[in-house]
Write a structure and sequence with these properties.
Strand content: 35-45%
Number of strands: 13
Mean pLDDT: 77
Number of helices: 0
């Protein structure tokens, strides 16, 4: 069971009413292992001295009966200055559905980005230099499908996205349909296999770009989902 923790950095719940969002029992969980920024990219330029990134666990585990899983999503400021008011979004795609994020508010269905099925907005009033804030995420994963998660870090009003991790997949190339739980690796496309060994076709659209609409506007459909950007070339990519 992964540790469930949140730091004590001050923050208040974001208002539940989103006119538009700019992007747009027992839970099985393995030891999460080293956190990773895999699939992360810088988007809009952050204020001088602010360096925002996110991490996800390298490994999660899905209960084969209930489809439940949990993980920890972390936002970090590796810079030398405080971030100011920001927010972290946690968004699920395809077979991965985000059910709850501790201390965060659900994004209304009409405001979800193209191709996503669920999402939560987590307010961070200010992230001090060198500090991080972690959120406990409850989710389900349909092992008969592929599944992805996305972590954008935005200004408090959502007009700029400083960093976005994903949509990055969790999955396995060696499913365990008869085991109590199936371990999934970050950055691995899930290759579902039904009990009995019959491989199922991969599901879900390959999505690695989420379009950024005009400030305050709703998401534009672009055929694929991915970065919240406006034709900006990412300045750094996490390995």
């Amino acid at each position: 069971m992964s540790s469930r923790r949140m730091t004590t950095i001050a923050g208040s719940l974001v208002t539940a009413a989103f006119s538009t969002v700019m992007i747009f029992s027992v839970t099985a969980s393995a030891d999460e292992g080293p956190a990773s920024s895999k699939g992360g990219k810088a988007v809009d330029e952050a204020p001088a001295g602010v360096e925002l990134t996110t991490t996800l666990p390298g490994t999660i585990s899905v209960d084969n009966s209930s489809q439940k899983t949990d993980l920890t999503a972390t936002v970090k400021n590796d810079g030398s200055k405080d971030s100011g008011k920001i927010r972290l979004l946690v968004v699920g795609f395809d077979g991965m559905t985000v059910k709850n994020v501790q201390g965060c508010s659900p994004i209304e269905e009409k405001d979800l980005p193209e191709g996503s099925n669920s999402g939560f907005a987590c307010p961070v009033d200010n992230l001090a230099a060198g500090k991080s804030k972690s959120y406990a995420v409850d989710a389900t994963f349909d092992l008969k499908k592929t599944g992805k998660i996305c972590l954008p870090v935005q200004t408090g009003d959502g007009k700029k996205t400083f960093w976005q991790q994903g949509p990055v997949p969790f999955g396995t190339t060696n499913p365990s349909p008869n085991a109590p739980a199936t371990p999934l690796l970050l950055g691995t496309d899930n290759k579902p296999v039904a009990p009995g060994g019959d491989e199922l076709p991969k599901t879900g659209v390959e999505r690695d770009l989420l379009p950024l609409g005009a400030a305050g506007a709703s998401l534009m459909a672009a055929g694929v989902a991915g970065l919240w950007w406006s034709q900006r070339r990412p300045r750094r990519t996490a390995s």
